[in-house]
Amino acid sequence: MGGKCPSRKVKKRRYSHKTARRSKFLLKGDDAVYGELQQKPGGEMKEATLPLDEDLPGMGQYYCLHCDRYFANVSVRDEHFKTKRHKKRVKQMMGPAPHTQLDADLAAGMGAPDNGLKLMSM
């Protein structure tokens, strides 16, 4: 009568393979994407303007600027444009500017000191 207790739960692996896959292609922050959108009118990029890159899906030709994602082909990218996640992201990027590191520093009191008006010294 040996072995493990039958009521003991088997521990599952807690490592998420999906998380590791996501971190393979680092995404830009909201403020960086917002800055790019302000520089480029129109938002959507054309395939001819992107350089070829073997390391990216679809040779780096099919890109969503709002979500900062590359896609394998046109049909997958077009399906992505119809998703709720993409539409939320577009709406978020069309709104007010997201917070930046400068905003966080100023809120924490680490910005430039404000000593008031400079008085004339005599």
UniProtKB/TrEMBL annotation:
BP GO terms, sorted: ribosome biogenesis
Keyword Zinc included in the entry's annotation: yes
Name by which UniProt lists this protein: C2H2-type domain-containing protein
Single GO term (MF): ribonucleoprotein complex binding
Organism this protein belongs to: Salix koriyanagi
The C2H2-type domain, residue ranges: 64-86
InterPro entries the record matches: Matrin/U1-like-C_Znf_C2H2 (IPR003604), Znf_C2H2_jaz (IPR022755), Znf_C2H2_sf (IPR036236), Znf_C2H2_type (IPR013087)
SUPFAM superfamilies, A to Z: beta-beta-alpha zinc fingers
Compartment(s): Cytoplasm; Nucleus
Keywords annotated in UniProt: Cytoplasm, Metal-binding, Nucleus, Ribosome biogenesis, Zinc, Zinc-finger
Top-rank taxon, per record: Eukaryota
